[in-house]
């Protein structure tokens, strides 16, 4: 009986030692005072984790998990898979219910490269965006209906709309086609009805209709309006 008690006591001591040693390996600093090894932080005055991951002499490496508090419990809000050779990370954001919101790559706090954003109530992609190294929208942006069909395409340069934008009905019919320049409607524009027939066409200058616009009813010419004076004198 005495030997059995000593054996149990020894196991308890070993177990407590292992726990102490494991805890001592978390949240450590290197000789330069930089975070090194496994780290985990809780929300203030709670035992609920705020984030957890690994540092290599101050640099995030591997997989990090970030949480938000929901009814006093930690819920996963984002994951970041860091690249050891630079500041880029493959990032996924989640809703409080665990649904994927968006995913792509970040350079520090900047969105870079291709990003996918998802619809709120279904798993389908809502938009496909591209960002330059400055974190600005660059190139083609595509918005999708929940059923997967294209709702809108547009083009960006340094974060501003530039080029042709097209808007589609859920049936696939083209509804609008207009041109942007430096984030303003500027250039040719066409509008179509639900059957794809031309409804109006003309030109914009600096977000205002300009010159002769032609209007149609059921694809047939209905009227023309000169918007030149209106664009030059917006109060008229």
From TrEMBL:
It comes from the Bacteria. The keyword Signal applies. Keywords: Signal. InterPro entries: MORN_2 (IPR011652). Pfam families: MORN_2 (PF07661). PANTHER family: MORN VARIANT REPEAT PROTEIN, TPR REPEAT PROTEIN. Residues 1-22 form the signal peptide. This is Toxin-antitoxin system YwqK family antitoxin.
